[in-house]
Design a protein that fits this description.
The chain is mainly α and 134 residues long. Helices cover 60% and strands 3% of the residues.
């Protein structure tokens, strides 16, 4: 490929071909140099998209009633708020648990998880609170 570009540049300098042809050859060469890097980036983007899709698809509307029941079973409802399992806020006052972690509905809890999660929901209530807060 490099030899082809050099040949095109020589022809251009002799006036045998036009500027457009030389630019096209240089562009093709530049694209070839970065082809592997662009392909790796494409594969990484596709992997990220697939992971995001798996996260978004991991909770359905049908799961909300089950999540509510998990919260009841685990004693994770404080007033009108859903809070994490006790291990996350042991020793805190309920007001602190609500202030820092509480959400008023399973819909909001699931929306927050689907926005912030780094992996799909594993079907447990605890997993809904484990995500990157940065």
């Amino acid at each position: 490929m490099l030899e082809t570009v050099k040949d095109v540049q020589r022809k251009y300098s002799k006036g045998e071909i036009g500027k457009e042809e030389m630019i096209a050859a240089q562009r093709a060469y530049a694209l070839e140099l970065t082809r592997e890097e662009r392909e790796a980036e494409r594969v990484a983007r596709e992997r990220e998209r697939e992971l995001q899709e798996s996260i978004w698809n991991s909770i359905t509307d049908a799961d909300h009633a089950r999540i509510h029941q998990m919260a009841v079973d685990l004693d994770c409802i404080r007033g009108e708020y859903y809070v994490p399992c006790t291990g996350h806020w042991a020793g805190w006052r309920d007001a602190d648990a609500i202030l820092y972690h509480g959400v008023p509905s399973t819909e909001q809890l699931c929306d927050r998880f689907l926005t912030l999660a780094l992996e799909p929901w594993d079907g447990t209530y605890q997993h809904l609170w484990e995500f990157d807060m940065e």
